[in-house]
Amino acid sequence: MSSATPAPLPPLPPTAAQGHQARHLLGVPADVAVDELEVLATSRFTGTRWDVAPAGLSEVDVPVGRVAGPGEPGVLRLSRHSTVTGPYAPQGKRAEPGLPAGTTMVFDVVCPRERWDTPQKYGGDRDGLARAFPAGLPNREEERVVVWLLQAARRLGGTVRLDVAGTWDDADGGRRPAGPGTVLTPDPGAAVDLTVYSDVWLDPQAAHRVLQSVHPRVVLATEGKPYQGPPKGLAERPLYPGEPLDDETRRALHARADDHDIEALRAPMVLDAYGLVADLNVDGTVTVEVTGEERLPLLVRDLPWAASGAVCYHVRWDAPDLVEAQQEFPQAAHVVARRRAADLVARLAGAIHAATGGEIADEADFLLDPEDL
Questions:
Q1: Cis omega (within 30 of 0) on the bond before 370?
Q2: What is the DSSP letter of 6?
Q3: Sign (positive or negative) of CA dihedral 126, 127, 132, 138
């Protein structure tokens, strides 16, 4: 028995944004499902809901206003002022998305138009945002939406076309020129860092054993120098010219401070954070920072074991050239080093997750299946 042929997607409309709004497009390939975009939205925006759920959506984990009729796109609300409408076909009647070959679905994103008044002059531009917004970068709500769009495109293997309001219609009644409509395809390899969130605390020696089984050059970064006390003679001289303390009062204060230090050193040591490091020579270093946190990704904070916070294992790569790491098109040597470091970061995060359980998140706080590492 043959399966039913899916209904054709509606064409992208030429008009979507009003004068005070910005319009952006997200294109994704055939292996992406609509509910994947819903999950990425709920990972970032607390008010995510379907005003209009696309027909045939198998599962919905957010509130739904109504289901779309035949030929009608869905409307996913990110916040009070921002929406994602679609999916649309990658072609339109009077609006051509201009996205690369391989794009099978297009989502129309409308949000408030909020920009800085001057162009970006300093800092890195790993994702090409300054190229897409030459007159001034987005800020406030539009910045949150655009950053999420780029991160979602990176995760889904998609492409964004930014600032297309006025491309196929008169933006703001013709009073505002059309946006440049720059196409950006975020490099999936640029996002290396991972975090494991768990309710299990590994003590430093246990974490060291777990990670050394992955890479023998992982070392604990908890070594320090014995405390030698304050410099000799400190109590015998004024801290600054004109200090009002006499010699006897100054000595008494320092004696009390010494007693406090001695008492603190005799107390049991409470370890609330530590780190481990793997030196990769020309490829930089990978660090694992272990700490407790209360501010967690949206999809983690509602889990029963994370109600009061979680233990976080941040696995990060420090590139040998930090400036090169923030280039949109880095040199080949950086890309090779990044690829090798990313493989190690994934294996270390996987080993930690195998030992502690919990959840794994990427740099954008999107959750990952351990099998996808």
A1: no
A2: P
A3: negative
- For residue 361, what are the β-bridge partners? 195, 367
What kind and span of H or E run contains 111?
strand 105-112
Mention every residue, 6+ apart, whose C-beta is less than 8 A from residue 231.
none
Residues 6+ apart with CB under 8 A from 2: none
CB 152 within 8 A of CB 362: no
End-to-end CA distance of the chain: 37
Report the alpha-carbon distance of residue 359 to residue 193 in Å, rounded: 14
Q: Do 320 and 337 meet the contact criterion of CB atoms below 8 Å apart?
A: yes
Q: Is the peptide bond before 90 cis (omega within 30 degrees of 0)?
A: no
Task: Tell me the pLDDT of the chain (373 aa) as tens digits.
Answer: 444 556 789 999 888 778 888 999 999 999 999 999 999 999 999 999 999 999 888 777 888 889 988 889 999 999 999 999 999 999 877 888 999 999 999 999 999 999 999 888 777 789 999 999 999 999 999 999 999 999 999 999 999 999 998 888 776 666 777 888 999 999 999 999 999 999 999 999 999 999 999 999 999 987 656 666 667 776 677 767 777 878 888 888 888 888 787 777 776 666 779 999 999 999 999 999 999 999 999 999 989 999 999 999 999 999 999 889 999 999 999 999 999 999 999 999 999 999 999 999 999 999 999 998 8
Domain boundaries, the chain: 21-186, 194-222+271-372, 234-266
Q: How far apart are CA 22 and CA 16, in angstroms?
A: 9
Q: Which pair of structure tokens corresponds to residue 342?
A: 């990313």
Burial 52-62 (b: 16+ CB within 10 A, else e): bbbeebeeeeb
**Which is nearest to 104 in space by CA: 172, 33, 208, 14?**
33
- Separation of alpha carbons 38 and 27, rounded Å: 15
pTM across the whole model: 0.85
Sign of the CA dihedral 273, 371, 285, 123? negative
